[in-house]
Design goal:
This protein is of the alpha/beta class and 350 residues long. The chain is built from 11 helices and 15 strands. It has an 8-stranded mixed β-sheet, sandwiched between helices. β6 and β7 form a beta hairpin. α3 packs across α11 and α5 crosses α6. The relative contact order is 0.16.
């Protein structure tokens, strides 16, 4: 019966990877117990955007097997690195960048980390905006201080279910850092290699705006899975986003997708939709790169950031939070697709 179940499951494809669950090694358990087929599927990410589709397809296929009266599908997850892990214990490093400031990049990065962690992934967030660190404030941890372990490695702080490091927790509040390129490079090296991040599925890196020294240091220091570009709909932001894309292209960093922030505004009293900055401009750039999502302008996102709780946790049912959650899952899906290239053609089924 085990072989019959596997044969049925081999007809079910992962909708994003376009290969069957068996050859991808995603089936951990397939057995018949009292007429009920017990199927456990290990997804390529706990934030899988198409989990419901996979469950539906598994049920339909397995119910065709003789002797199966019902199907019980359970899920696990095993995030696979794209080739060799970027750093010891860290499977994927994802850069969140923008061509200019003021597009809500840090807010998006914080909510991406919170959403992935809520879905069950092991997540870290590195605030690499050394001159203007804001992540600690958005997480309600601006007064916390980083400590070291017995091996003299920095211990990342923990907030809302994920780890983070920010210069704001290492320097006195309000102190300006007047650093040149070599000092920035040294700081980034320490954040990455002299910190005890432990085991992470994703390390989200909030970059400073623009295309400067920090971006170059990161792309030259470690193997990065890819970058995400945050922009707003107006032309001036899209022009700068195109420059950021060109920088990553020259640094051989794949662009995993675009996120259009402040895409539109829904009036809370009437429900009318207003395109305050235009809308859909990112789709022009999205002809070459996936548009991961359009996030509406929502004052609660700002209020939640000031209160120290990511919007996806404070107001999970709001339109902005749902859009941010969908973006995080689309991003996880894009990472899984990229990881497929490093998988063998046929994996062993447990």
């Amino acid at each position: 019966m085990h072989e019959a179940l596997l044969a049925a499951l081999s007809t079910v494809n992962d909708p994003e990877l376009h290969r069957d669950l068996v050859s991808l090694g995603m089936i951990e358990r397939a057995e018949l117990v009292g007429g009920v087929a017990q199927i456990k599927v290990n997804l390529t990410t706990p934030a899988c955007p198409l989990k419901g589709k996979i469950e539906q397809d598994v049920r339909s296929a397995v119910l065709e097997v003789a002797g199966v009266e019902d199907v019980a599908v359970t899920f696990g997850a095993m995030v696979r690195p794209a080739g060799q892990p970027a750093l010891n214990g860290i499977k994927h490093v994802v850069l969140v960048g923008s061509g200019k400031g003021g597009v809500g990049k840090s807010s998006v990065a914080v909510n991406l980390a919170a959403s992935l962690a809520r879905d069950g992934a092991k997540v870290g967030l590195l605030d690499a905006d050394v001159y203007g660190p804001s992540v600690a404030h958005m997480l309600g941890e601006s007064q916390a201080k980083v400590t070291a372990n017995a091996e003299r490695k920095m211990l990342p702080l923990v907030a809302h279910g994920f780890k983070f490091l920010s210069m704001a927790n290492l320097s006195p509040a309000g102190q300006a850092l007047v650093w040149r390129g070599p000092m920035l490079h040294s700081a980034i090296q320490q954040f990455l290699k002299d910190a005890d991040w432990g085991e992470l599925d994703y390390l989200i890196v909030d970059l400073p705006p623009g295309t400067g020294d920090v971006q170059l240091s990161l792309t030259q220091t470690i193997q990065v899975t890819g970058a995400v570009i945050v922009t707003t709909p107006q032309d001036v932001a899209l022009i700068d986003a195109a420059r950021a894309i060109d920088m990553f292209r020259k640094a051989s960093v794949p662009v995993l997708g675009l996120i259009e922030n402040m895409s539109y505004f829904v009036a809370p009293d009437t429900g009318n939709v207003y395109d305050l900055f235009g809308r859909g401009g990112s789709r022009k750039l999205g002809e070459q790169f996936p548009l991961l999502g359009e996030i509406p302008l929502d004052t609660d996102v700002r209020k939640d950031a000031d209160a120290g709780t990511p919007a996806v946790l404070a107001h999970p049912t709001s339109a902005a939070s749902q859009a941010l959650t969908a973006v995080a899952r689309q991003l996880a899906g894009q990472i899984s697709v990229r990881s497929l290239a490093s998988l063998p053609d046929q994996l062993t089924v447990v």
